[in-house]
Specification:
Radius of gyration: 39 Å
Structural class: alpha+beta
Shape: elongated
Distance between the termini: 127 Å
Largest sheet: 5 strands, antiparallel
Strand order of the largest sheet: 4-3-2-1-5
CATH architecture of the largest domain: Orthogonal Bundle
Number of strands: 8
Low-confidence stretches: 1-23
Oligomer: single chain
Number of domains: 4
Helix content: 40-55%
Strand content: 15-25%
Order of helices and strands: HHHHHEEEEEEHEEHH
Length: about 350
């Protein structure tokens, strides 16, 4: 017998001969479950439901969404694993394999999210009601809706074939539907582009009739050089070829080239200059930086070689009536400048 009339029971014991009450963990769990049962029974009584059935339904719904969360974790880990597998560790150049892997991982996340949430919602409804008639009705309704949503079906089918044929991937620079930019994101319905000014373009897959991929396989930069007629064209061609040879063997920029720089020669004749064309075959995505660097080197080389840049010039023939004296010529020139 303890002070205050307390007795030792199955849930209490002595420690070291000293009278002490210690609560058993099993009692706490039992009390917690009892409280939860009591709450569910009261809710079931209010809603006129069977308490045990309501408890089983709540546990089933909880289990469904726990499994859905675990499935989403698996999808995310799989997508991250794909990105890690294709990553070669070189951030300076994005290979075709890396672009393909990022595209697949993004699609896996977007499609997996929709599928998991849809299945979890249907299973949750199935706990309380029979969804078989709803699914049958939804099939008929979906057939009716499909006739009114042909553009959506076309977008999804186009997205499927874009992915299947590997027309482009995340990170590619493309031109489609009158817009151009870097592919930031792809889904089964739309493609998101980001142009040079930072504007985001969302293009439905079904609207892309023709796609121009500027970063697939290899690329080419076309650099035209204009020189004045007063310069020796053969000498300038020699200077350009020499600079092109040095640029092709550069230890840094040569790695971004896919072959030596080609100097084609005189491409065209304009009113005040001769145009010399050069072609630089580069790694995909490097054509813009390579062209800028080659132009910079040519400008510096022309400055060292004292080669002038072309400027607009106009030759005017003046016919003076009434004589060819200097005063008459000056008056005619003044009148022409004023007119």
């Amino acid at each position: 017998m303890l002070p205050g009339g307390l007795r030792y029971g199955p849930d209490h014991h002595r420690r070291g001969g000293v009278g002490q009450l210690v609560s058993s963990p099993g009692v706490n769990v039992h009390l917690l479950l009892g409280s939860l049962n009591d709450i569910i029974d009261r809710l079931a009584a209010i809603l006129r439901l069977d308490g045990e059935a309501a408890l089983r339904a709540v546990l089933r719904v909880l289990g469904i969404w726990i499994l859905a969360w675990l499935a989403w974790r698996v999808v995310r880990l799989t997508a991250r694993r794909i990105e890690m597998t294709v990553d070669d560790g070189d951030d300076s150049v994005t290979t075709l394999r890396e672009k393909r892997g990022r595209t697949i991982s993004q699609l896996l996340r977007s499609v997996g999210r929709v599928v998991i949430i849809t299945i979890a919602v249907l299973l949750t409804f199935n706990v309380f009601i029979d969804i078989a008639p709803i699914l049958a009705g939804a099939g008929i309704l979906g057939l009716a809706v499909s006739f009114g949503s042909q553009s959506l079906v076309r977008d999804v089918l186009s997205g499927f074939f874009i992915l299947l044929e590997n027309q482009f991937a995340v990170g590619d620079v493309i031109e489609a539907a009158g817009k151009s930019g870097v592919v930031e994101r792809m889904t089964m319905r739309v493609v998101v582009l980001r142009d040079l000014e930072g504007t985001m373009h969302v293009i439905p897959n079904g609207e892309m009739k023709v796609v121009s991929n500027k970063t697939r396989g290899w690329a080419r930069a076309v650099v035209d050089i204009s020189v004045p007629y007063t310069e020796d064209v053969d000498r300038i061609l020699g200077v350009v070829r020499d600079e092109a040879a040095q640029f092709s063997t550069d230890p840094v920029w040569g790695l971004q080239l896919d072959g030596p720089v080609e100097v084609l020669g005189v491409e065209s004749l304009t009113d005040n200059s001769v145009v010399i064309r050069t072609l630089l075959k580069t790694q995909p995505g490097s054509q813009w930086n390579v062209a800028r660097e080659f132009r910079r080197r040519l400008i510096n080389r022309f400055s060292r070689e004292a080669i002038e840049s072309p400027f607009e010039q106009r030759r005017v023939h003046v016919t003076v009536k009434g004589g060819s004296s200097g005063e008459a010529v000056a008056q005619a020139a003044t009148a022409g400048a004023a007119g």
